[in-house]
Amino acid sequence: MNGVAIIDVLLAAAVPVLAAAALLYRDLFRAAVVFIVLGLTIALVWVRLDAPDIALAEAAVGAGITGALFMRALGALPGPTRSAHPVRSSRFQRLAVRGAAGVFAGIVAALVAWAVVTVPSSDPVLTSLVRDAAPDSGVGNPVTAVLLNFRGYDTLLEVGVLLLAALGVSTIGAHRHAASLGGTRVRGPVILAFAHLVLPGLIVLAAYLLWIGADLPGGAFQGAAVLAGAWLICAFAGFPADVAPGRMPAVLAGGFCIFLLVAAGMVLLNGGLLRFMPATAKWWMLLIESGLLVSCAAILATLVFRLTDDDRPEAGR
Amino acid sequence: MTVADLGAAVLAAAGSMFFVAGTLGLVRFPDVYSRLHALTKADNVGLGLIVLATILRAQEAGIGLRLAAAWLLVLFASALASHLIAREALRRGIRPMRRP
Amino acid sequence: MTPALLYGLSGALLVAIGLTGAIASRSLVRRILGFNVLGSGAFVIIIAFARRVAGPVPDPVSHALVLTGIVVTVSATAVALALAVRLGDEEDGRHE
Fold it and tell me: What are the backbone angles phi and psi of residue A276, rounded to the nearest 5°?
């Protein structure tokens, strides 16, 4: 990373413009589409900032899954003809609110920008600690080492948060009680053929991302996002590759349980929760990550699919 | 600037032209079907040319193969998406616009 | 002006835009959108700082933090949108 290239200027300029567009477009559907574009552009920013793992995760989860969530939510909300609240405020009031919002945004931008410029650029203590301990972590990719070895607790609880979200969405969103992803509205020969074509490759890609995450950019979450995409395509296509309804809770919670069991096992083996020995660390981490791959994929797919039961075909554009 | 760099620049410029045309069509065309039609030009040919440009500048053949695979996947995905959108539009009764 | 500083400033703008959108919007879905933008802006700033450390490899702790942050953000967004959909019958719907 040497100097500022043209693409850096373009990206740094495009990102706030896209964000403003996403928040200013009247039609929420267009705003959601611009938000997906924003996610992909931020993924490019991650590449330029030497963060390829995050770029993969942002493109798959930040732009893909989040975009799908917004689309699905918008499809279930009442359409433009059913406006419950007529516009009450006067034109002056609206202008005043916009002006105040603009001033507020400007002040916040100035404050944060000043903070960014004046922060002293010294290495955090943790960075040198990680650098010294990295050879003992068992993997070559420092981000994977931090995620699963040095800061394993954070990842364990993060998976717990995912699980809670899946529980929450299933309770709030869907009316059905079946736990699997069956039942869809999008059937057709084209999407079925697409599912046939793409499913094997996506499964291999997910496993590859998991395996390669040990030494190169990749990892369990990126693979899980790809697998979730494959799962969703199959669910929407009516492709008969699904988990039996009774087994789904086990699949959803399995990764977290494996993680917990390994953590507890380390107490017996090595004398501390999630304490790994350099020689065997890689294999325990692989075990945890494999569980996470399937579980997080199921959770992400559940988040999108169970968001709403309420696809109204008439509430359209 | 080597021949490969020059070729890559020309191809990328040509691909960008297709993207500009596709975006213009997306913004200006009157109905869903013609907008889909404009988008496929950007997606297929435009992306193909840009992928060719990056393949010319790739350091090894493996990277070039992966780029081509990415383009192939985008082709399939955009074909699927266009089909689904057009089918849903037909289902909702949006007729293709005819010249008045 | 290093690239990290440039992206840091871009992130600052994102934070401002996201915060303003989250506070000043009428539609619930747009407020959720604003929170996502706010989160993305914070991540950009963190990774821009991570790029500033000495040596070729950027700070991996910040990277892991942001990765966790992205996953938690999508979880929170999913629950928020599910709630928004259930509340949807009393809201303005898809247009502001």
Answer: -105, 150
